[in-house]
Amino acid sequence: MELGPLLRPIAGIDVTVIIPAYNEAASVGDTIKSLQTQTTPPAAIIVVDDCSTDGTGDLARAFGVVVVRPPTNTGSKAGAQNFGLRYVRTPLTVAIDADTVLAPDALERLLPAFHRPAVAAACGFVLPQRVRSVWERGRYIEYLFAFTYYKRLQDYYGKPLISSGCFSMYRTDILGAQGGWSSRTLAEDVDLTWSLYQAGHEVRFVPEAVCYPIEPRTLTLL
């Protein structure tokens, strides 16, 4: 696919960020701002407006980022990410949810993981933005325990169980060779992580690279 002028990387690190978004007008602006103010900003930010009905695309466009829209809703987060992947022309790709914001140095912290050629993906530390409801508090404790203990232990043995879907960085060529993200499962991040292992690649957990997603307020919103 030929790139239009707006899709060519601009000055920045050799990273393109893909933000899949369906009716995310309430949060996508904060996500974009957190990317544009990184200590090492990305070369390009692509918002995949998956046929939203709430003006998500127009809002994102106002921030000066690239907005692409499939002809019909892709039906899944993975589908939207794969639609965006075809526009990437940088060696590294970041996938981030449209309701997630990054610590100011999150991208800079992830980059050193790729100094090792065998590393195909790296993920950061996840902490929920909001801790109000009983469910959100429970999720906060779950994340805190998982990322301070289990994830570090998994990384020690070189096998994090999952490169988190809300914020991960990948080598673009390897991601493409894997066919992108699988739409056959809702756990596309788990599926991709283990596909990378099966292909002989490494995945790394970088606890210093922090992201803050908005968790569903209740179990029924998952």
Q: Please indicate the percent range of residues in DSSP E strands (runs of 2 or more).
A: 15-25%
Sheet with most strands:
8 strands, mixed
Which ranges are low-confidence, i.e. pLDDT below 50, for 5 or more consecutive residues?
1-11, 217-222
How many domains? The number is: 1
Helix content: 25-40%
The pLDDT mean sits at 84
CATH top level is Alpha Beta
Radius of gyration: 16 Å
- CATH homologous superfamily descriptor: Spore Coat Polysaccharide Biosynthesis Protein SpsA, Chain A
Give the secondary structure arrangement, pairings included.
Elements: E1 13-21, H1 28-36, E2 42-49, H2 56-61, E3 66-68, H3 77-85, E4 92-96, E5 100-102, H4 106-110, E6 119-126, H5 134-156, E7 167-171, H6 172-177, H7 188-198, E8 202-213
Parallel strand pairs: 1-2, 1-4, 2-3, 6-8
Antiparallel strand pairs: 4-7, 5-8, 6-7
Q: Can you tell me about this structure?
A:
- By secondary structure, the protein is of the alpha/beta class.
- It has one domain (5-221): Spore Coat Polysaccharide Biosynthesis Protein SpsA, Chain A.
- It is 31% helix and 24% strand.
- Strands 3-2-1-4-7-6-8-5 form an 8-stranded mixed sheet, sandwiched between helices.
- β2 (42-49), α2 (56-61) and β3 form a beta-alpha-beta unit.
- It is globular.
- Residues 1-11 and 217-222 have low confidence and may be disordered.
